[in-house]
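> Could you send the Oxidase prediction when you get a chance?

Sure thing. Input:
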Amino acid sequence: MDKKERWELTWVVFVLALFVIVGVATAPLDGNVGGVPQEISQIPPNAKVDNVLVTAYQYYFNLSEHGPDVNSVEEIGNTTNDFYYNILVAHPGDWMNLTMVAGPETATTNFFFPLYGDKITDVQIVPGLTGYAVFPVPNETGVYTFVNGEYDGPWFSYQEGNMIVIPTSGYSSPASISKYITTTHEAFTSALVGDPYNPRIYVENSTMSPNLYVVADDYNVLNGTIPGPTFVVKADSSVSLNMYVPTPKGDHNYLYNYSTTGKAAPDKGIVAGIYAVWWNGTITPVETSNLTYNSHMEFTFNAKAPAYLYGVIYPVFYNYDLDGMSSTLTGEQMGYVMSLWGTIIVES
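Output:
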């Protein structure tokens, strides 16, 4: 072996060693890809654990949750699902044990949940592999947002969800809600505090007849945030929610969809409404109606459940197929997108 070959071999060994060092140094601390989920050892003995299967699809999360007190049951229309779209339901102090996989024909996605008070969950969801993570549920009731931190198409920033933390019985206490609001506001202005992705919070607990307003822009964003803003209302109050969505136009709006003829038009037959989130994790419809564009839709309900969802709480099919030119050869851009929704927390 001459001098030149030795230098080439040394360089190859150096590069391989560098790859190993970088791989070890940047491996996520809270999740493994494949293998045995060692993270489960972090869960304290006798803790209540909700086991969650997270299946990542193009632009939404499918979450099947099962625990001692919470099981995912979601009634939408005439369908009852044993999973949630983009939400988790949890009780304070419980632990979440997540197993994460990618759905069929899905690009690599990510589950990012920055609960800085406890830990940061940041796991790549790679097709064909399995990711794991565990984390404690915050002690304060409220709405905490997780996101897809990996670009997998133009609507990746819409792939966000809420973990709705409610008490095991009764309603959120004013003290707990106050701490949740304080932490969220700190997260908006300070680094490494709370969850900076939490939606805006509107407190409407000074009246027993609150009027809530949400308005979508041309990008299907309610009041400037995805998910939509979180409202706080009093238990047993008579709540009115007014929702306005303009007529979709332009390719920047996922409800402006292409048909099989390659011509775009606003989507029809979309259902919006109010849905109760019960203590055991069951979600049931309270009032629903077909989404009407350029119209102020109004929903009313009595705040009996510990939390509610409002808006369009399921993902809507999106297909960009200008003049029918999309194909497996030229490329396809489609998926299911969900942004016109939010959460209402009920306070005692």
